[in-house]
Amino acid sequence: MRSHVAARPTPSFPLSTHRSTREKAQLCAGDAPRELTVSSAQPIAASSKKRSLPWCHATPLAVAAALLLWPLVGTAQAPHALTAAEQHQVDTLVSQMSLEQKLAYIGGTGFAARAVPSLKIPALEMSDGPYGTRSNSGFPSTTYAAGIGLAASWDRALASELGAGIGRDARARGVHFMLGPGVNIYRSPRNGRNFEYFGEDPYLSGQIAAGYIQGMQQQGVSATVKHFLGNNSEFLRHDSDTEMDERTAREIYLPAFEAAVKQGHVSAVMDSYNLIDGKHATENPYFNIDILRKDWGFQGVLMSDWDATYDAVGAADAGLDIEMPTGKFMNQANLMPAIKAGTVTQATIDEKVRHLLSTAVSYGWLERDQRDPSIGFLDKQNQAVARKAAQEGAVLLKNEGKLLPLQKQSLKSILVVGPNAYPGVPVGGGSAGVVPFHLVSGLEGISDAVDHNTTVLYDAGLPTMKNLSGHMILMTEAGGGKPGATLETWSNVDLQGAPASSTIVPGIGLEGLSLASLIGNLDSALATIFSSPPKAISHRFTGYYTAASAGKYIVILEDSGEGSGNRVFVDGKQVIDNWKLVRAYQPHISLDLAAGPHKVVVEESQTSILGGHLGFAIVAEDKVVNKRALELAAKADVVVMEAGFQQESESEGGDRTFSLPFGQAELIRELSAANPKLVVAITSGGNVDSSNWIEKVPAVLETWYAGQEGGHALADILFGAVNPSGHLPATFERRAEDNPTFGDYYPEEGTRVVHYKEGIFVGYRGYEKNHVEPLFPFGYGLSYTTFRFANLSVQPAQGAGASASFDITNTGTRQGADVAQLYVTEDHAKVERPAHELKGFERVDLAPGATRHVTIPLDARAFSYYDVAQKRWVIGSKNFTISVGDSVASLPLKAALTLASTNVP
Q: Residue 178 pairs with which residues in a beta bridge?
């Protein structure tokens, strides 16, 4: 659940634009992969014993003393298998708790598992923010590159570093459970939460997740892998029913979770909101018990997503350990009668309590304070990791004429332009949002990087949504009437019956009960809400917009996503439909309008407890671009445009458009006409429609959501201080229709069932099956240097495994990293299999002229498919082809392999 708060905040305002169910609950509560190892040694920032900011009063001498003394205090405790004595401790605590205490214990307290003071069991604190420790007080924290950018690095070690950094930040704040990483598979660029996840490939996702988890848990903080399972879109997320066959689930959507459990040894798993094959995830024993517990051997905590529990007995018997944010269903009132009736056993409840307490004991949480005073709130090592992640994740998509890297000494002026150039966008919207101590925008990063001989110019290039809606003139009648629009309000969600009220308002827009308005007097505001819960409500705005001349006009809607429905009619024709599905937070459409008045009707409904947000505007397409930006572009030596999405347009709780937000494509085209030396840097969680501008732009960078250091990282790459090395973790299609899921992404008409008809052929597997050439293939990424692959040798190993080795050489003149990717193909498969499947990779950093010999082991799973009839992994034949290169479409090395055995352990 979400409500829109206000316009996009500046970095100093500690609230993200959109609020998830979890955030509302927080407000209401008030409170053959290689093994990766992380040293427990932690350099510390200076800290203060007082609650004041720990870096404010530190002296160099104090920092030095802390560094000398740090091994004696605050040592992280990674989770471990319980000793017999520790198991006895857990069993004793379970036996000492009354049934009433146990039933209370399996319901959260907002953002924590509750304390049991009589048994000296502390509250176990939880925090949002897979890419930073999102303090429940809104206090700032290091903000790292989002998941899709981390995956684009293809760097397991970096994933571990980033996880460890978040773990240190969590320890500084006393957090036990971090609610991440998210590993849901990228099916379509439309998913509003893709930016949190690790792309379209299950193997890559699992490897990055395992590194992240290991790094975090070495710091004594539990990771929580989410959202289990099938949460691959944000529209209708509480009610959509994911329907996939078992082979698809096993081969595509489960492996990243499996790697998190088996390789990362994750301590917590979070169930998703949606249904899977007709049962909500929290009530689905097949996935929660049969697969997670029995098949994979998971022994940790299974928690619900916030308000993702829908039935007490169903969730209790399906393996859910703790309902978050509170025991709305799994509570004494519901479960005590079920226990008495025998529909839920007391042993089932004991097992839930045991999972929670065993996890706590495995980390030593019952014996020590989770808040580590030896770790500063602002950790310089973590800032360095944040910058490294932003650098390594950026993908150079296009570099015609070798425009990049820019030569500082020859630049007298550079224009930085675009809606994301300042103040910058560290993360997308929703519960993943983290407030950085300082956000480095592209404008600031580029300005810091150039010397005094270069002038850095700036223009936003486009008006904001607020500016557009505030200046749009409407009239109540076609021939004049009064200024403004007629607002009718109903006390139901579907405008039934006569309106309860009708009034004239200045424009089309709503701001519901915002979080900002609650902060000043939280207790009384919440008391009012819960004593008189707001009823469902709907609105209709009617007004007349006068087009000054005939031409193309952009019609823009902005809403609060989940919990609201919206639609727009122009001259009686529906042009935007968000009524039943939140297809996009900020949909926009281009219409041909004749000169003169046009009737505009905007309808909106709300079911969200904290109200909604609605914005609307119309602007002439040829008037949307700021002409001052074009004048500056014509005079500058080079133009850098930062395009892409923001928290208002890409977020949890709803999906996003495939096209860039309103006006940006027009701005790119007009800038390219004004200055051919144009670099476009894109902030997004996945691909965007570039069909009407990419041929006009010589250089394109995908920077994803780069965190607090995004501006520095962008400048590092633009000026060649860092060689771009990111590779795409998702295929970038030419057209939206090319995506293998395009026709089946939304539910069938009249249902809430989402059929995964593409089966295992999602992402690059589907493009190859359908013989569709994408714009940029999976694994693609350019560099300022060049690489050569050679000398592939593949040898079968004992059993059904193998080993592949090859050389990679930097044949260029710059230091740089490439990602060697290994794909497996079964030569004459008896069942339908993908043309290529990623089964190994290695990021290799090389000096000019240097060569590295790389060996990648392959176990039996690398050659297997899931046989539904036999309910196990099988290898169909012994003959395979191993391909190696730096994208699925660039595989210069190929070798035949005959396995010694087809037996899968």
A: 127
**Dist CA 682 CA 748 (whole Å):** 32
Q: 214 near 36, Cβ under 8 Å?
A: yes
Percent of the chain with pLDDT over 70: 88
pLDDT for the residue 73? 37
Nearest alpha carbon to residue 468 among 685, 623, 628, 283: 623
Neighbouring C-beta atoms of residue 81, cutoff 10 Å: 10
Integer Cα distance of 152 and 725 in angstroms: 9
Structure tokens at 531: 């004593």
- Choices 3.60.15.10, 3.20.20.300, 1.10.10.10, 3.40.920.10: CATH for 97-125+222-369: 3.20.20.300
3-state DSSP of 335-355: HHHHHHHCCCCHHHHHHHHHH
Q: What is the largest CA-CA distance in the chain?
A: 85
Cβ pair 577, 558 in contact under 8 A: no
C-alpha to C-alpha distance for 262 and 275, rounded to whole angstroms:
25
Per 3-state DSSP, the chain is made up of helix, strand and coil in percentages (nearest 5) of: 30, 25, 45
Tell me the CA distances in angstroms from 40 to 22, 168, 688, 706, 748, one per residue in order. 32, 11, 41, 27, 51
Cis amide bond preceding 405, omega within 30: yes
Residue extents of the structural domains in the chain: 97-125+222-369, 382-462+625-766, 465-622, 787-898
Pairwise CA distance, residues 273 & 290, whole Å: 19
Of 128, 305, 716, 886, the catalytic one is 305
Rounded CA-CA distance 326/389 in Å is: 35
CB 271 within 8 A of CB 282: yes
pTM: 0.91
Q: Mean pLDDT over residues 655-676, rounded?
A: 98
pLDDT single digits (tens) 482-518 = 999 999 999 999 999 999 999 999 999 987 543 333 3
Percent of the chain's residues with pLDDT above 90: 85
Taking the CA atoms of 43, 49, 54 and 58 in sequence, report the sign of the dihedral they define. Answer: negative
Positions of E strands within 548-637: 551-559, 564-570, 573-578, 588-593, 596-606, 613-620
Q: pLDDT at residue 62 above 60?
A: no
Residue 31: the pLDDT is 36
Confidence label for 178 from pLDDT (cuts 50, 70 and 90) = very high
| Torsion from C-alpha of 319, 285, 1, 244, nearest 10 degrees | 150
User: Tokens 């080079």 map to which residue?
Assistant: 638
The pLDDT mean for the chain works out to: 90
Helix, strand, or coil (residue 695): helix
Identity at 831, one-letter amino acid code: V
pLDDT tops 60 at residue 340: yes
What value does the mean pLDDT take over residues 391-415?
97
Angstrom distance (rounded) from CA 38 to CA 557: 47
465-622: CATH architecture:
Sandwich (2.60)
Q: Helix H segments across 394-453?
A: 442-449
Q: Angle 380-393/156-173 helices, nearest 10 degrees?
A: 150
Question: Is the distance from CB of 728 to CB of 217 less than 8 angstroms?
Answer: no
The answer regarding whether domain 382-462+625-766 maps to CATH 3.40.50.720 reads: no
283-299 exposure pattern, b = at least 16 Cβ within 10 A, e = fewer: bbbebbbebbbebbebb
Alpha-carbon span 572 to 568, nearest angstrom: 9
Q: How is residue 285 written in tokens?
A: 């024993």
Rg of the chain's alpha carbons, rounded to an integer?
27
What's the CA gap between 265 and 298, in Å, rounded?
A: 8
Residue 375's φ and ψ, nearest 5 degrees, are -110, 125
827 is catalytic: no
Position 379: which residue type? D
CATH number of 787-898: 2.60.40.10
Q: How many residues does the chain have?
A: 905
- d(CA 95, CA 453) in angstroms, rounded, equals 74
